[in-house]
Structures are given as structure tokens and as C-alpha cells.
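pinned: reference chain
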Amino acid sequence: MTDPKRQLAMVIDLNKCMGCQTCTVACKVQNTNNKGMDHQWWMKVNTMPGGGYPKDWDQMGGGYDADGNVVLGKLPDAEDYGGGMDFNYEEVIYGQKGQEVHLAPREKPTWGPNWNEDVGSGEWPNAYFFYLPRLCNMCKKPSCAGACPHNAISKRDDGLIDINQRICETCTTQDCMKGCPYKEVFYNPMTKAAQKCDGCASRVDDGIAPACVRSCPGRAMWVDYLDNEDGAVHKVVNEYEVGLQLHPEFGTEPNVYYVPPIGPLTYNDDGTVNEENPRVPMEYLESMFGPKVHESMATLRAEMAKRRQVPKEESGLTDALVAKRYPELLGELSKSPGGDEEVIS
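pinned: its C-alpha cells
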């Protein structure tokens, strides 16, 4: 697979994501509202720690081994997804049963895209959780493409990964789903082909940011080309190196980067604040983002301290993370869906 001319990348600040699912809904409405796509959530926001979607995806295998060979992991089944939920809208809205009925799935689901919502881990008063938006990682070395026996998966010139539906529908192995360690490839039983987040390619072609990024009310998601040295994505990933890849041990070199959650401090048994221990255990963060998370967190705290001291010092990193102006999140994809340049402040 040839390297793209440029690489589009995303940064997601886990300190700002509030789990509102606006990005999830925006993606669902625009991309996965057709037949056979009920279980497809190209964008979803999982509560961590938690099983995620599909269930326990990070334990299903895939990616590359130490020698650079593609590893075929488990193929998610219907129970791992939980299927699409069919609600009793007619009965509630038109059934004339007043308070006797409430909105609920017709069949009890077994799993779902936000099944562990707000459950988290830890013990009172030091319980903790954070939100993790997940989508196709636009990997530099996509193992889904490496596993595809028909060369139906390729990288575009902008680094987005595309599945040729016409070629894919002739395949029966579903090896691309097995090969993706993030389980971001879905099978459509109606079209007989694999489908996944395409980075809102048609919008990108028109200079418009993906729907998930534009819809985020917390300004927690950014998109831009990595080689744009004036952009916030480049600063966070390449200059300050606080943006981290999810499960780098999979070997696919993702281009979705996460700013790790700092979280609150812990409390001692006597109720005093323990300033030495973060609420979210570093061991857990390391299991998700690798050993670089220690350096990333140290940089975050040091740069934040610059702005808190008197007199305060300038910090390019905190300026980028705050993102006071909305267009800063969009990089070179600052056109509005109407075609005009973005002017929202």
C-alpha cells in the first residue's frame, strides 16, 4: 500500500468529552441509516472502563505481530453488538394507555454501543470514569487492508481508508473484520459487503469537516492534516506530543490521537486531598495508550501550571486545547456545509 500524499488526522481531548453522544447521532443520521446498518455505529462514545462496542473489542485480536504479519482475531457476532433495538413507539404514542406503558425495546437487548454508560470503576470516594469516542482510526498501516484477500481496501491520497463495495461483495471471509484490532469494520447482511467510517470522505472532498467534529458541542474533537504546521492538530501531536494513539501495541499506527484524561485528585481515608495520586490510575491509562502516557500527562500538567501561576506564562499547548475560536478545530476543512468559509468564533 502506497503512502498518501497527506494524512488527515483527528485529535480528541478526553478532558473535554462529556459523553453527550451528539457526534454519535450526527454520524448515525448521516451515514448509517440504511438497511442492514442498524448495528453499525461508525462513531460511538463508550464509558471507560467498560466493555465498549462491540463488547470487549480490545480483547478480540487483530493488528500485526512483532514480525509485521497481519493477525486475524475474532469475528464479532450478533451478541457482541446486541443488534438494533426496535422500540414500542406505536404503543406509547398512539396506544392510548396513558401511564401504563413506557418507551422500551420490544425485546430485551444483550448489549449496545453505550451499555456501560457512566458505570466506571474504583471505590467511593475515588470512583472514576471517562468517555472515549471511537471511530475508524485511519491507520497508517491498516490491518483491515492487509487482511483483505481481494485488495478491496485502500488509502486515499488524504489518508482516509476506503472500501470498494463492488469488489468487497464478492468476498465471504470477512477477514478485514478479523484483522482490524479496533473492530471498526462492520458487515452489512443486506449488501453482503463490509462497511465502516469513511471519515465523511464526501465532505472532506468539499473542504468540510466530518460530521462528528462539526457537531461536537464541547469542542473536544479536531481534524486537520498532520503536515499543517500552523494547525492545532500538528501542535498537539507533533510539537507537544501529548496526543496518543489508542492501543499502539496493535501496530497499525492510528491517526486518531487522544489527549489523555487528567481527572480529579483522590481523597485519603480522612477526607483530605491526595495530590500525588490521580483518580484515573496511570496503570490503566498505560494499558490503553502505552508508556508514552506518563510523558504526555507530565507535559499537560506543566503547561497548565504555566497559565495558573502569577504572573501567568504563555502556553501554546493550552491555547490549542482551549480552542477559543471554533475554526481552530477544523484546520483546512473550515468550509461550512453551505459552502462558505467558517466564520463562527
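why pinned: The radius of gyration is 21 Å. The chain has one domain: 8-84+111-329.
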